[in-house]
Amino acid sequence: MSTLFLALAITAAQILLAFAMGCAAFRILRGPRAQDRVLGMDALYLAGMLLLLTYGIQTGRTLFFEGALVIGLLGFAGTVALAKFLMRGEVIE
Questions:
Q1: Sequence-separated (6 or more) residues with CB below 8 Å from residue 84
Q2: Range of the domain at 58
Q3: Which of 13, 33, 47, 64 lies in disulfide reach of 21, CB 3.0 to 4.6 Å?
Q4: What is the 3-state secondary structure (H, E, C) of the chain?
Q5: Number of folded domains in the chain?
Q6: Is 33 part of any domain?
C-alpha cells in the first residue's frame, strides 16, 4: 500500500512541477519587466531541478541527483549574475 501511495504521490508531484514549469515559461515570455523574467527563470530552473529529483526518486538512480545539484548551482549563479546586472548594469567590476 505504501509503495503504491508513494508512486502516486511522485507522479502527482511531477505533473504539478510540469505545470509550474509552464507557468514560469509563460512569465519569462510575457513578463513586462526584466525583473519578472529573472524571477521566471529562477522558478523554471528550480522546478526543473525538483522534477529531476522526483524522477531520480522514482527510478532510484543517483545520476539524477547529481544532475539536479549541477542545475541548482548553475541556476543560482545565473540568477545572481542577472540580478547584479540589472542593479548595476555590469556583472564584473
A1: 90, 91
A2: 2-88
A3: 47
A4: CHHHHHHHHHHHHHHHHHHHHHHHHHHHHHCCCHHHHHHHHHHHHHHHHHHHHHHHHHHCCCHHHHHHHHHHHHHHHHHHHHHHHHHHCCCCC
A5: 1
A6: yes
pLDDT score at 52: 95
Residue 93 within any structural domain of the chain: no
Q: Could you tell me the pTM of the whole model?
A: 0.86
How many whole angstroms separate alpha carbon 42 and alpha carbon 2?
33
At 34, which CATH number? 1.10.287
| pLDDT score, position 15 | 97
The answer on pLDDT for 93 being more than 70 is no
